[in-house]
């Protein structure tokens, strides 16, 4: 019983670590900029700015818990954004066409990644590095290298509209996707299998889990979410930009890692990822408001990633 | 084994004919190369299309190479072009410093080389430069900003990647004009790296501060469009005016609709025509000035119809 208590405490410590970092940073920013940063409107703004990265991070979380990595999501964002915008010109196709296309393309690229990893036995880093490069090329080809403009108002409203005139739809999507992801990870059999193959693939296979199938599905989830994020970014910027989404995969990975998901797979909680995504948005927003140059922002963001993971590692050492 | 060797030889033969046929004279028409730094935004696409059109008008053949924002790739492309006997090379450099070896190689080989849009550090190695003065572009943009906001108020700058030619030049131009207007205060000055999504986030965050901005002045139209979205979302377009540079299609449309206050054209067609003309003259042994500067054009609601 005492041992169980001990384990519970350590688990709590690990998750508290990131919460403490989050609260401290919030407090610092509130003190430095009480009139701008802490306003309710700005807090909603931060939520909105966290949404696209948050959605990518949710997909990335499944992949990393399963013991993999998905570098292709930033390029998927660019390709699906360009394709969606191309099919969203006024008077051409109904709104559902760009939406479906973005989701299907994302899903397909995820499937391709998954098959390469599960059946081709190629390391995830390599497969998704390859698709990241290929898909960026395809995005430039289909857009002929230039941004796609001239989308309908309805398309702009996909990300630009508000629920009850107050909550940006972007935030609503982020919340819905978080709830669905949290349910799958914690309640569904599939979620337990994702943890199992990430923790120990061989014993998972022995216990009758179809490892290949789970692996492919994990990358399909990541691809699907990335396709949705691409649609949202194109709607938000009112254009499909073939060079958009560069390094978005790194921000998504950072959110997951800051949130306490282990890079070696098998562990991590969904709410950690939510805090990770919010933390990245908070830092960006707070430093913009304080007029800190974007170059310093990179240094600070990188340092926080390292500190967050360091806290995680230190708390793990205490268990061992 | 013999079959393999034969096949390799056959392939090499085919390839070498292909290479040698790419020589200077093809059907009696001179062949020129255009080296683009990259082909991934509206400006570079417009520029390369304009050079193609100019080459057609002059009755010469033009091949376009995409450097993929990689200076070492661009150097290799120039080296291959030298060996393939092009009559002249027009280059939009991927790096103003790093491209030096390629320019040196071309001038050693006696092939005329003209830089377009960006001056290189060792500009004396090239035969000519054709382009705009970014400082002038910034001055034209800021002159109109001053007029539009009545010479006073708080303004914000959206800058290109810090240290890039366009960013330094245009921003210098802004401050040249602002010297005479002490009532205008620059409260924010940040880079959004030419990108729409970064500019959108940055402008959203500025609007949260409650600082009463009267203008957001962007180094390019991509960032101006991001700022425009943020300001429109906040329903503050009646208070904050937005300005850009480049005259991209969506910026022109926004100017026509009265949403974007102004954009400044780099006169891309005029640059292309002047550059191609200079290169052909050089290849035919004529002299051209070492610097050909093309003027910017301010585009507002009044004259936007001429550019669409």
Automatic annotation (TrEMBL), chain A:
GO CC aspect terms: plasma membrane
Q: Name one Pfam family in it.
A: BPD_transp_2
Q: Which UniProt keywords apply?
A: Cell membrane, Membrane, Transmembrane, Transmembrane helix
Q: Which GO terms describe its molecular function?
A: transmembrane transporter activity
Keyword set includes Ribonucleoprotein:
no
Entry's InterPro entries? ABC_transp_permease
Alphabetical list of CDD domains matching this protein? TM_PBP1_transp_AraH_like (cd06579)
Subcellular localization(s) per the UniProt record: Cell membrane
Look up keyword Zinc and say if it applies: no
Q: What is its main location?
A: membrane
Which parts pass through the membrane?
12-33, 54-87, 93-112, 124-142, 162-185, 216-234, 270-290
The membrane-topology field of this record reads: Multi-pass membrane protein
PANTHER family, alphabetized: ABC TRANSPORTER PERMEASE PROTEIN YPHD-RELATED-RELATED, RIBOSE IMPORT PERMEASE PROTEIN RBSC
Specify the protein name: ABC transporter permease
Q: Which organism is it from?
A: Candidatus Thalassospirochaeta sargassi
From TrEMBL, chain B:
InterPro entries noted in UniProt: Peripla_BP_I, SBP_2_dom
Q: Which UniProt keywords apply?
A: Signal
Transmembrane residues, as ranges?
A: none
Q: What is its main location?
A: other
Name any one GO molecular function: carbohydrate binding
* All copies of domain Periplasmic binding protein, residue ranges: 33-286
Q: Where in the cell is it found?
A: Cell envelope
The UniProt family comment states:
Belongs to the bacterial solute-binding protein 2 family.
Name of protein: Sugar ABC transporter substrate-binding protein
Lineage, top ranks? Bacteria, Pseudomonadati, Spirochaetota, Spirochaetia, Spirochaetales
């Amino acid at each position: 019983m005492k041992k169980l208590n001990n384990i519970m405490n350590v688990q709590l410590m690990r998750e508290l670590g990131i919460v403490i970092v989050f609260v401290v940073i919030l407090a610092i920013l509130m003190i430095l900029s009480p009139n701008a940063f802490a306003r309710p409107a700005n807090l909603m703004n931060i939520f909105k700015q966290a949404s696209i990265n948050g959605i990518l991070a949710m997909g990335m979380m499944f992949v990393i818990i399963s013991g993999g990595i998905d570098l292709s999501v930033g390029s998927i964002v660019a390709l699906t954004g360009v394709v969606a915008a191309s099919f969203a010109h006024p008077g051409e196709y109904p709104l559902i066409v760009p939406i479906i296309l973005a989701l299907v393309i994302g899903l397909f690229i995820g499937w391709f990644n998954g098959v390469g990893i599960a059946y081709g036995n190629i390391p995830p880093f390599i497969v998704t590095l390859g698709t990241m490069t290929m898909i960026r090329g395809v995005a430039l080809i289909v857009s002929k290298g230039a941004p796609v403009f001239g989308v309908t108002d309805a398309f702009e409203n996909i990300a630009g509209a508000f629920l009850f005139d107050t909550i940006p739809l972007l935030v609503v999507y982020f919340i819905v996707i978080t709830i669905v992801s949290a349910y799958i990870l914690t309640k569904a059999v599939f979620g337990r299998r994702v943890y199992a193959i990430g923790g120990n693939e061989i014993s998972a296979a022995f216990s009758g889990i179809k490892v290949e199938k789970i692996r492919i599905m994990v990358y399909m989830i990541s691809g699907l979410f990335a396709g949705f994020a691409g649609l949202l970014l194109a709607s938000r910027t009112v254009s499909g930009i073939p060079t958009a989404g560069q390094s978005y995969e790194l921000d998504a990975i950072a959110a997951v890692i800051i949130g306490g998901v282990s890079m070696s797979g098998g562990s991590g909680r969904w709410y950690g990822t939510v805090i990770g995504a919010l933390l990245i948005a908070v830092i960006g927003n707070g430093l913009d408001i304080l007029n800190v140059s974007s170059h310093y922002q990179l240094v600070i963001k990188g340092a926080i990633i390292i500190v967050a993971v360091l806290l995680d590692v230190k708390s793990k050492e205490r268990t061992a | 084994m013999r079959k393999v060797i034969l096949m390799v030889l056959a392939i090499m033969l085919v390839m070498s004919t292909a290479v040698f046929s790419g020589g200077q004279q093809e059907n009696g028409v001179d062949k020129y190369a255009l080296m683009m730094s990259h082909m991934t935004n509206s400006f570079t696409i417009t520029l390369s299309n304009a050079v193609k059109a100019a080459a057609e008008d002059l009755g010469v053949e033009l091949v376009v190479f995409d450097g993929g924002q990689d200076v070492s790739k661009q150097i290799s492309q120039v080296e291959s072009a030298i060996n393939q006997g092009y009559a002249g090379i027009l280059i939009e450099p991927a790096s103003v410093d790093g491209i030096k070896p390629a320019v040196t190689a071309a001038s050693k080989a006696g092939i005329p080389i003209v830089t377009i849009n960006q001056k290189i550090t060792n500009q004396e190695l090239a035969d000519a430069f054709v382009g705009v003065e970014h400082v002038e572009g910034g001055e034209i943009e800021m002159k109109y900003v001053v007029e539009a906001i009545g010479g006073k108020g708080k303004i914000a700058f959206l800058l290109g990647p810090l240290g890039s030619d366009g960013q330094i030049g245009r921003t210098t131009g802004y401050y040249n004009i602002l010297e005479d207007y002490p009532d205008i205060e620059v409260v924010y000055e940040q880079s959004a790296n030419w990108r729409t999504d970064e500019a959108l986030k940055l402008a959203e965050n500025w609007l949260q501060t409650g600082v009463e901005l009267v203008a957001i002045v962007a180094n390019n139209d991509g960032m101006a469009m991001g700022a425009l979205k943020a300001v429109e979302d906040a329903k503050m377009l009646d208070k904050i005016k937005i300005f850009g540079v480049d005259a991209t299609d969506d910026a022109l449309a926004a100017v026509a609709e009265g949403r974007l206050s102004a954009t400044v054209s780099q006169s891309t067609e005029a640059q292309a025509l002047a550059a191609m003309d200079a290169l052909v003259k050089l290849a035919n042994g004529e002299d051209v000035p070492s610097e050909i500067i093309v003027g910017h054009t301010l585009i507002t609601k009044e004259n936007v119809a001429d550019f669409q």
